[in-house]
Amino acid sequence: MPIDERERARRRRLAKAHIDAENAHDLDAIMASFASDAMNVVNNDVSTTSEGIRQVHALFGLGPEPGILSDLRVVPEHEHFTDEEIVHEGRFRGVHTGSAPGFPPPSGQSIELPYIVVYRFDDNDKLVSERATIDMSPLTRALFPIGSTP
Q: pTM of the entire structure?
């Protein structure tokens, strides 16, 4: 069933508020956008607790302290709608200054990580699902540019 323009506008407003909180690096505001039973999935890593969701956002650098990236900005470029969700394509832009298990050591270079995020909101205007696929390969390419040898 197609959605109407009012529902599209609601989803746009809610996604924008969430992304604005991310770009403000305000973890409390980010967490306030989630429902208590929300699920966050980043590249198949699932978080279903508030603490887990908070940690994932902080890990990338969306909190007051730098994470894997510093000066991180979430930059949506395209939006799409399904019957129940809003989908954003865009880029994370930041500087690779932090380290974390499973990630390459910091390169100090400006990085853009392409992403697709699917947001689902409940009737109370809270995020019940944030599912992201983030292309992490630019982190490795910053360390080993094409033509170099590791």
A: 0.91
